[in-house]
Design a protein that fits this description.
There is one protein chain. This protein is of the alpha/beta class. 28% of the residues lie in helices and 33% in strands. It is built from 8 helices and 15 strands. A 6-stranded mixed β-sheet has the order 2-3-1-4-11-5, sandwiched between helices. Strand 13 and strand 14 form a beta hairpin. Helix 3 packs across helix 4. It is found in: Cytoplasm. GO terms for molecular function: glycosyltransferase activity. It is an enzyme of class 2 (transferase). Pfam families: HisG, HisG_C. This is ATP phosphoribosyltransferase.
């Protein structure tokens, strides 16, 4: 039975469970459940703190898990990213008092407060910057005002919290993070489950990602305009073209990016396409 770690709370939790449900897996109904078995899919889910998931997977206790890329790198364990999942995006950046810093190079000899000390130490070491890292469990933006640090490194979303604390972002992003599927490195990808079961999980999650990003578009168009229409809706491989009763017309079906739906519909209509319909994709395999 494949053993999968899922975030039990925080910004990762709800989105991860929703994605697994869309992929056809049972998920818990009570947030107090710590373990849940899905016998139909021969899989067992363990609901854990997001920060601990990389540790369990890296030690081989669990086969795979969903956590943040930042948490994976910060854990410094033998685990690797298998698949980016497209949610819980965030950026890890430096911030300091307004006007004090403009680049990471200016942090030489300074004190840096962060909740991601492993990630930050590796970043500094790779760039030859010698700075003291002060680990805090939260509210790092207060550390400068309280005299604990000269600057901070933290996850930044809107930056409003930093502005309220009299600070500003500087330098290039340290890391762009999102939710990722991870597994242990160097063991063939599974501690208790099989590589095949992990491949099935990956395909299902990839199917959810595609279903969220694409829609099916159907339309009728005159035969002589098919090539021009296909350039607007190339699909993943090639559009499906079917004959109609009127031999001068054909029906076309293709997958198109969801965010470009209305633009493509307008361009098809201007080209001469009619009966343009759009349908959602609930599941797929690519």
């Amino acid at each position: 039975m494949l053993r999968v770690a899922v975030p039990n709370k925080g910004s990762l939790s709800e989105a991860a469970s929703a994605m697994l449900s869309e992929a056809g897996y049972r998920q818990r109904r009570d947030s107090r459940e710590l373990v849940m078995v899905d016998p139909d899919n021969d899989i067992e889910f363990f609901f854990l703190r997001p920060r601990d998931i990389a540790v369990y997977v890296g030690r081989g206790t669990l086969d795979v898990g969903i956590t943040g890329r930042d948490l994976l790198l910060d854990a410094e364990v033998e685990a690797e990213e298998l698949l980016p999942l497209g949610f819980a995006a965030s950026t890890f950046r430096f911030a300091g008092p307004v006007g004090d810093f403009t680049s990471a190079a200016e942090l030489e000899g300074k004190r840096l407060a962060t909740s991601y000390d492993g990630l930050l130490r590796n970043y500094l070491a790779e760039r030859g910057i010698n700075a003291k890292v002060v680990r805090l469990d939260g509210a790092v933006e207060s550390s400068v005002r309280l005299g604990v640090a000269d600057a901070i490194a933290d996850v930044v979303e809107t930056g409003n919290t930093l502005k309220a604390a009299g600070m500003e972002i500087f330098g290039d992003p340290i890391l762009k993070s999102e939710a990722v599927l991870i597994r242990r490195t160097g063991n063939g990808g599974a501690a208790n489950g099989t590589a095949k079961e992990i491949e099935v999980l990956i395909r299902r999650l990839q199917g959810v990602l595609v279903a969220r990003q694409y829609v099916l578009m159907d339309y009728d168009i005159r035969k002589e305009l098919v090539e021009k229409a296909a350039s607007l809706t190339p699909g993943l491989e090639s559009p499906t073209v079917s004959p109609l009763r009127d031999s001068d017309w054909v029906a076309v079906r293709s997958m198109v990016p969801k965010k470009e739906t209305n633009r493509i519909m307008d361009e098809l209509y201007d080209l001469g396409a009619r009966a343009i319909l759009v349908s959602s994709i609930h599941a797929c395999r690519i």
